[in-house]
Design goal:
The chain contains 15 helices and 17 strands. The protein is of the alpha+beta class. It has 2 domains: about 290 residues, Bira Bifunctional Protein, Domain 2 (BirA Bifunctional Protein, domain 2); about 100 residues, Anticodon-binding domain (Rossmann fold), CATH 3.40.50. A hairpin with a 5-residue loop joins β4 and β5. α2 crosses α10 and α5 packs across α6. The protein starts with 10 loop residues before the first strand and ends with a helix.
């Protein structure tokens, strides 16, 4: 049956002279995109380095498959609260930001039952209640423990996470970390309106401009010292790690003062030339998820987040339906890859073996390919398709540095004639082929 003209795939010329097809089966679904080979290698190197650093710090790497889109948001909303972070999009549809990779790692850790787990992972991210324009991944670590920790234990766990992230990012880029403590404001909310209404209280406080928070807190019965603290933070939203706590802290009770001191303790411990730290007690970022210390990581002199983390005990306890303390840190894989220069392209093979038609030449080429691969030398094995010049141009476009043609001469001679990228021919003794290619590859990498 002939395809109607209106349904036939259309082809449009591109600037490079090639023709691109508009056929529907060549278009990817919304939110998916192809990753070129060098970009994929860049992602893989960052991912493997993350797992290596995690293992040095005692975090076991695990594989997390993509989870169901609907399942992620249903469980995330149930644990965090249906109305938190809700907002309309341009078309008036109600959307909501939810925790994405955290429910997945909690679900995996729950398979072993209550206990302690320290896991590192790379997880797909689903951010909105509709399919996104692009999928991303989190490089994450999570420390999961049964029971509820004290503030001292939370401080030590937060330090462990930040030290891991700092060690990982130090060779890559300079960054800043902002230490916050939503647990301070959770305590304030519980005192003002009670634990049951604390989430709604915090959501309203987060939406209130910082300079209006003292009046807003005073109107809802907050202690005078708390309102004074909010007023102080409105004028000084951030402070260096070793700065003295704000003056109102001296008039707060021991519980609130301890929350403030913990922030400065963490910031002072992680402040280095490659990762500068500051304290922002008035920052309520993701306050509905964090219940104690938290942090945000940004590239230096940039406002867009690179990663974040902190304590998720309340979220994890509701998600797993039992008292659970969870600390997690996440770095955006694609975001990090955009910031780091992509490494030089790596050719798909070190040498191309082109066998001519005779069966003996084909067998010799297959034997050589097997021996070279056993020596960890990458081989592009193919049959010579005249003209040779065209095939050499194609191999050069892939960046393959050496070409060896297997023909009648190679069947009887004791040397192999190798062509390099410049066209120069070098006769290499047959028994020295492997060592010659290994040395040539090493010289290329160090050049």
């Amino acid at each position: 049956m002939r395809t109607p003209a209106s349904r036939a795939p259309r082809h449009r010329p591109q600037g490079n002279g090639r023709v691109a097809s508009d056929s529907p089966h060549l278009r990817l679904p919304r939110g998916h995109h192809d990753v070129p080979p060098e970009r994929a290698r860049h992602h893989r190197a960052l991912r493997e380095a993350w797992f290596d650093h995690g293992q040095l710090h005692g975090f076991q790497p695990v594989e997390i498959p993509p989870v169901g889109f609907e399942s992620t948001f249903t469980t995330g909303h149930h644990a965090a609260g249906q109305k938190l972070y809700a907002f309309p999009d341009r078309r008036g549809r109600q959307l909501a930001l939810v925790s994405d990779s955290l429910p997945t790692i909690l679900r995996l850790a729950n398979q072993d039952g209550p206990g302690s787990n320290r896991l590192s992972y790379c997880c797909p991210v689903f951010r909105y209640e509709r399919r996104p324009r692009r999928h991303f991944h989190h490089l994450g670590v999570a420390e999961i423990n049964a029971g509820i920790h004290t503030l001292t234990e939370a401080t030590n766990a937060t330090l462990r996470l930040l030290q891991l992230v700092a060690d990982y990012l130090a060779p890559l880029l300079d960054c800043t970390v902002t230490i916050t403590n939503p647990g301070l404001w959770r305590t304030v909310a519980a005192r003002c309106v009670g634990p049951a209404e604390a989430p709604a209280f915090l959501d309203q406080l987060r939406r209130t401009p910082p300079r209006q928070r003292p009046r807003w807190l005073h109107a809802r019965g907050a202690e005078p010292a708390v309102a004074q603290l909010a007023e102080h933070l409105a004028h000084q939203p951030g402070s260096p790690p070793r700065a003295e706590p704000p003056d109102p802290a001296a008039r707060l009770d021991a519980e609130l003062a301890e929350h403030i001191t913990a922030c400065h303790t963490v910031a002072a411990a992680v402040d280095t030339p490659r990762m500068s730290a500051s304290v922002a007690l008035g920052d309520l970022h993701a306050v509905e998820f964090h219940d104690s210390l938290a942090f945000q990581i940004r590239p230096r002199n940039q406002q867009r987040l690179l990663g974040d983390g902190g304590s998720y005990a309340a979220f994890a306890s509701r998600f797993l339906s039992r008292p659970t303390t969870t600390y997690s840190a996440m770095v955006g894989l694609e975001r990090l890859a955009d910031l780091i220069p992509q490494p030089d392209p790596r050719p798909p093979a070190t040498v191309a073996l082109l066998a001519t038609g005779p069966p003996e030449a084909q067998r010799l080429a297959m034997t050589l390919a097997r021996d070279l691969r056993a020596a960890h030398i990458a081989v592009w094995h193919a049959t010579l398709a005249p003209p040779l010049s065209r095939q050499l141009r194609e191999l050069a476009s892939h960046g393959i540095p050496y070409v060896l043609v297997i023909g009648p001469r190679e069947l009887v001679c004791d040397t192999f004639r190798i062509r390099d990228a410049t066209g120069q021919l070098t006769d290499v003794p047959r028994h020295q082929l492997i060592s010659w290619l290994q040395q040539a590859s090493a010289d290329t990498l160090t050049a």
